[in-house]
Design a protein that fits this description.
Blueprint: H1 2-8, H2 23-32, H3 36-63, H4 69-85, H5 89-97
Organism: Panicum hallii
Keywords: Signal
Signal peptide: 1-16
Length: 101
């Protein structure tokens, strides 16, 4: 999920690698590679994706939802756009850097 989301934002080089020690270590590492609005956006994206994955997992465990990578990726993309529209400036900044589709 992380690679797919970050790839869609042109940030695939920041995706966690198999040899990363922990989520915390990975987040610290990628956060230190950015600054300003990009750093704010990246931190917001990490929070959004982690929260979305946790929420999807809970719906699977407690509500019997079938796990769906495509479903969660679609949900995360929609949330990213909603957060950008709602004024999350860092996310809006990263989304603005993407080529027009």
């Amino acid at each position: 999920a992380w690679f797919s989301i970050l790839q869609g934002l042109g940030l695939q080089v920041l995706a966690p690698q198999p040899d990363e020690c922990s989520f915390d270590d990975w987040w610290d590492k990628v956060s230190s590679k950015a600054d300003g609005a990009v750093k704010k956006g990246l931190n917001s994206i990490v929070i959004l994706v982690a929260w979305s994955l946790w929420n999807h997992r809970n719906r699977c465990v407690f509500n019997g939802l079938q796990p769906s990578l495509n479903g969660i990726l679609s949900s995360i993309r929609e949330e990213l756009h909603q957060w950008g529209i709602a004024g999350a400036r860092g996310i809006a900044h990263i989304l603005a850097l993407l080529p027009a589709s």
